[in-house]
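QA checklist item 7 of 12: single-chain prediction sanity check.
[x] sequence parsed
[x] length recorded as 41
[x] structure emitted
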Amino acid sequence: MLENVVEFFKNLPDKVCVQCGDKIEEQSECYSSNCEKCNAL
């Protein structure tokens, strides 16, 4: 069962910025939908 959960999270698509479409480097405590570049604007 645990292997299925790990595989699920490994196979999730990359998170992308809603404004520019760039890939977001996710951190466990971050729920932002914008990349750092767009957050600075």
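[x] summary fact logged: The chain has a mean pLDDT of 83.
[ ] second reviewer sign-off
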